[in-house]
Specification:
With 109 residues, the protein is α/β, with parallel strands linked by helices. The chain is built from 2 helices and 3 strands, in the order αβαββ. Strands 2-1-3 form a 3-stranded parallel beta sheet, covered by helices on one side.
């Protein structure tokens, strides 16, 4: 009788747990929406005070490097830049987002 309650709890958890295909046993889909974009795409969201040619040049120098082992030129990352004022809820479903900001604090993180 002592082992009946934990056994019943384990059976209930197994019945309502997720299956291997991302769906629960009740047919509910995942809680988070699916992301868009591939692993090699970066979206930079820039505030208005950082949206300058020098910032964009620094981003390109850091992230527009080419693969060294390929015989033709091909960049490692595909970069897109968006103004902070133009960002909407659809853009936040993008897989790799970099939000840029300026902080006056020494230990911002």
């Amino acid at each position: 009788m002592k082992f009946l309650n934990p056994l019943l709890l384990v059976l209930v958890l197994l019945c309502i747990s997720c299956s291997g295909d991302g769906e629960s046993s009740f047919g509910l889909s995942n809680v988070l929406p699916s992301s868009t974009g591939s692993a090699d795409e970066l979206m930079f969201i820039l505030p208005d005070n950082l949206n300058s040619s020098s910032t964009k040049k620094a981003i390109n120098q850091a992230f527009k490097k080419s693969y060294r082992i390929l015989p033709q030129e091909e960049t490692i990352f595909n970069i897109s830049k968006v103004d902070f004022s133009a960002a909407n809820s659809l853009m936040y479903r993008f897989r790799n987002i970099v939000l840029m900001a300026v902080s006056n604090q020494e230990n911002a993180f």
